Amino acid sequence: MKINKLILLLVSALFFFSCSDDDEIINRSEVETPITVKASFNYTVSTTDPYIVVLQSTTESSVEYQSFWDFGLGGGVVSDDAGIDEVRYNEAGEYTVTYYTIYDGLTTIATQTIIVDENGVCPDGFCGSGETGSLKDAAATFSVGTITRASWVKAGGKHTEILKKEFNNITSEYEMKMNVMYPSQGNYDFSAADAMVNFAQENDMNVHGHALIWHNATPSWVDDFAGTNEEFEVMVKDYITTTLTRFKGKVRSWDVVNEAFEDRSGNPLRNSVFRQKMGDDYIKKCFQWARDADPDVLLFYNDYNMASSTTKRAAMFKLVDELGDLIDGVGAQMHISYEGPSKANIQAVADGTVSRGLKLHFAELDIRANPNEDITSLTNDRAQEQRAKYKEVVQIYNSIPLENKFALTVWGVRDNESWLIDFWGNADWPLLFDSNYNKKAAYFGFLEGLQ
Ligand code: G3I
């Protein structure tokens, strides 16, 4: 058996028989040689991510010795030669870090307990001093948004606590769509929308209305509309006018139309019931009715794959050009992954929007950490790659001119509530907070993008 493995076994065996918060010295041989190696280490909390500690051996010795770490994460013993000196503690708790030195059969051990709370690692074990700022305060020149639901704002608790602390813009995840607000002809139901709009007004937040017209959230009575095309058009105009009039002065912006283009070759307009019954210029008609109902509200076109598909992006910008002054902004959803789209393609969305003098909304940002289903938990390495992608996206957004800034919305607060889990049917951790509402590395990547 190689000497290294023998040492690791020896160290591991020792760990199971002795572990305390004090430095311990275990003499593995009877020699009377003076102790020349005494394990010790310290740690500091990373300045860019309070969940990361930087470990530093402070062992003084006149001889060469071998050394090993156990980070207290259940991953076993790691040789110091591996060069790992930064460790992230993703979840609140107490972790025992153990450092071993071995010289000439003599093992010395140093242990320290690292305490992690909701703000990160407690410096020197003292919690409560790690308060960080917030995303909305760090953004300063644009709104930072996320999605919510009527039941969540009514329930209060940690969800609304984080909404109020970190965000100043909310989007209804699904309750301000036609199938919820207009369940049957002539019968509007704004109760859920009202709950979220009232919450936003009480907490000095803006509301982004999403989405007036979307083929995937059209009530069945509209899809199966029994009247004439003219009657259909009157109904749609009434719906848009009624909705915008109701929320005038309370909802700052609306996605008038969402996802009008196919993904297939040529990116034609989807053959939705709106296109079938109102013609190819249905989009322009809807924007006009919205503009007429509320001249002050900001009107957006919203779609996905704007960064990953150059042809779809071109089709969208062609539509935007045809809408002229009826449109105020472009919503690029940004459902992306840690692997892509590329920085250049994301930048192209920003450039095309800015060059047209329009507002840009990164409207539904989430970043898949597990698109290839190659991990079963969010590893530190993958968390850091996701963090880097959040930083990149936020940097691109934060670099556009002030007049084109509007909002950057993440599509959810905590990982386990993301639509992506059900949609792709595999484990993923796409958002800024974990399922216990702890800030992830991704959260700090977002903050780094603002620096
Ligand atoms: O909360 C109710 C629950 O009480 C009820 O028992 C259950 C069964 O009816 O429905 C639940 O609501 C569902 C909701 O998601 C919450 O899970 C709605 O039926 C369902 O339609 C809704 O799906 C939303 C979807 O849009 C369709 O509106 C997703 O949450 C939402 O993340 C998704 O978001 C879309 C954007 O609007 C546009 N871009 C793509 C994005 C992802 O598809």
Describe this structure in words.
The protein is an alpha/beta fold and 451 residues long. The protein has two domains: 2-121, Immunoglobulin-like, CATH 2.60.40; 135-448, Glycosidases (TIM Barrel), CATH 3.20.20.80. Helices cover 34% and strands 23% of the residues. It is built from 15 helices and 21 strands. It has helices at residues 3-17, 135-139, 150-155, 157-166, 178-181, 191-202, 220-223, 229-246, 273-278, 282-293, 310-323, 343-355, 380-398, 419-424, 441-448, and strands at 24-26, 37-38, 41-45, 52-57, 60-61, 66-70, 77-79, 86-88, 93-103, 106-117, 120-121, 143-148, 169-172, 206-209, 213-214, 253-258, 298-303, 329-332, 335-337, 359-368, 405-410. The strands form four sheets. Strands 12-13-14-16-17-18-20-21 form an eight-stranded parallel beta barrel, surrounded by four helices. Bound molecules: ligand G3I. Ligand G3I binds at residues 173-174, 177, 216-217, 258, 304, 333, 364, 419.
Bound molecules: ligand G3I
Number of helices: 15
Q: Given the C-alpha coordinates, what overall shape results? A: elongated
Mind summarizing the main beta sheet? 8 strands, parallel, barrel
Strand proportion, as a percent range, falls in 15-25%
Can you give the mean pLDDT? 91
Termini separation: 51 Å
Any idea what the radius of gyration is? 28 Å
Major sheet strand order? 12-13-14-16-17-18-20-21
Number of domains: 2
The secondary structure category is alpha/beta
State the helical fraction.
25-40%
CATH homologous superfamily label of the largest domain: Glycosidases
Instruction: Return the CATH architecture of the largest domain.
Output: Alpha-Beta Barrel
Strand tally: 21
CATH topology descriptor of the largest domain: TIM Barrel
Which spans have pLDDT < 50 for at least 5 consecutive residues? 14-33
The level-1 CATH class of the largest domain: Alpha Beta
